[in-house]
Amino acid sequence: MTVRTRFAPSPTGYLHIGGARTALFSWAYARRHGGQFILRIEDTDVARSTPEAVQAILDGMKWLGLEHDEGPFYQMQRMDRYKAVIAQMLAAGTAYYCYTSREELDALRAEQEARKEKPRYDGRWRPEPGKTLPPVPTGIEPVVRFKNPTDGAVAWDDAVKGRIEFANSELDDLIIARPDGTPTYNFCVVVDDWDMGITHVIRGDDHVNNTPRQINILKALGAPLPVYGHLSMILGDDGQKLSKRRNAVAVTDYDDAGYLRDAIVNYLARLGWSHGDDEMFSREQFVEWFDLDHITSSAAQFNTEKLNWLNQQYLKTADAVYLADEVAKRLAKRGVTVSNDAHLQNVVALYKERAVNLNELADAVEPVLVELHPTDEMKATHFTETGLSALRDLRDRLVAVSWEKAALSACIKETCAALGVKMPAVAIPLRVAVLGLPQSPAIDAVLEVMGRESVLARLNRFL
RNA sequence: GUCCCUAUCGUCUAGAGGCCUAGGACAACACCCUUUCACGGUGUGAACCGGGGUUCGAAUCCCCGUGGGGACGCCA
Asked: What ipTM was estimated for this complex?
């Protein structure tokens, strides 16, 4: 049997980081076992679902590089199928009409809460042998409820949490179709997972309570049961539940913030799953190693500092063409137009080891690409009499030197010797003069990449 | 309130009864490297929630507490 997993978000917002991890694990599990990964959009909540949200999810998945093999399937397009199954269940007696109004339900719930009981439907319309049902009221369109078993228990071996068991007496008869005939979530999921041949349902922790109900429906339908694996949630940096107000939650926020997709994937993989002491691994390695046995069953707190570190590691080894592309894109957003050419790639390569994210890399690279003027304070501090004479001495040496790092370095050292000063006395004013900043990578490398013309022009601004 | 899940350094985690005087990573701190800022290197401090069992032996198994989380919708 080939493994078939699915990711089934509801399009009511962005693809958030928790959903992204769920998708990643489902994707990886399918890939690991040579199976299929299916994308299904659960859009039966017509009031809250939007096409923009669907697009945001698709964009997020694409950005992360999680490609689906089948779908996206839309539940709204499967209405006929759901309705057919409901009719079939009604006929088989595994579901029944319920005429209880919302008001009655609210009253029932209030009573139960007052008595400190778990709120649940009391089964007043549930047909039983020998039971007399209330008279059918006029003018009320009934909902359809699933006839849940009343005794015994439902249990399953959760792939991440182990054995979980619920007494059927804890479960009430859930509504599977609204008065207008549209099916509800728990029912659609069941029919979809069945029809789509899903073998492993990997989803968030918040669904464990739905699982026994879904299993009971599957059993009533005579459908095979998938393996369930419930992932615990991701908490924010502050240990609180993730919220849009306090945390970056949409995966595209991380793109905007300058994180590399591979770093995010690696970080997410490591958040809640482990392979011994391994911290950094490629996507391919992850797929090869991934299993359900090493998933943590307790909630994990998101740690931006560790993500930053990982991102930096990825940045250091990232391909220069790709980085140049990202940098150009980010510079363009602030009105600096550069093309992804050999020069940009060289500059990026020089700076990539000292940035933690792509935005910082763009910041760092910008002074090389466009002329920045040092602040008055910098000038006052660094363009002292000795500073300026060092720059003059150096400039004269740079005019004719062969333009490569070793020779440039030699020039700087000669200036140091000529003026009887140490390296920083020359290097720092030099940085301020050519970059407008007192810090940079090794200055000889910076000069080399900038080119003679540009360096001399910038130096002469102050001499 | 009821049900379900969960509990190892500040954080992510290793740990499948003896390999644990509990390992790694991030962060912190110290030192080293250094042409500035970073990178990097070396090292230090830092944890098995509490109480009972089971066992020759428990971070690991069981029970009870406590803390944390989730669910209890004609939302998904």
From this structure: 0.94
Q: How far apart are CA A148 and CA A110, in angstroms?
A: 23
User: A282-317 burial, b if ≥16 CB within 10 A, otherwise e?
Assistant: ebeebbebbebeebeeeebebeeeebbbbbbbbbee
Tokens of A463: 């001499």
CA-closest candidate to residue A422, choices A410, A437, A412, A411:
A412
Rg (chain A; Cα; Å): 32
Q: In whole angstroms, what is the distance from residue A328 CA to residue A341 CA?
A: 10
Locus of tokens 């182990």: A162
| Beta-carbon contacts of residue A267 (< 8 Å; ≥ 6 apart) | A306, A307, A310, A311
What the block records as the tokens of A462 is 């102050």
b/e A19-43 (16+ beta carbons within 10 angstroms → b): bbbbbbbbbbbbbbbebbbbbbbbb
Whether the beta carbon of A431 falls within 7 A of nucleic chain B: the reply is yes
Contact A73, A40 (CB under 8 A): yes
Active-site positions of A?
244
Q: How far apart are CA A197 and CA A18, in angstroms?
A: 25
Nucleic strand B within 7 A of Cβ A291: no
| Predicted confidence (pLDDT) per residue in A233-244, tens digit | 998 888 888 766
Q: Which residue is nearest to nucleotide B36 (CA to C1')?
A: A439
User: Tokens 């859009």 map to which residue?
Assistant: A43
What is the pLDDT at residue A244? Answer: 67
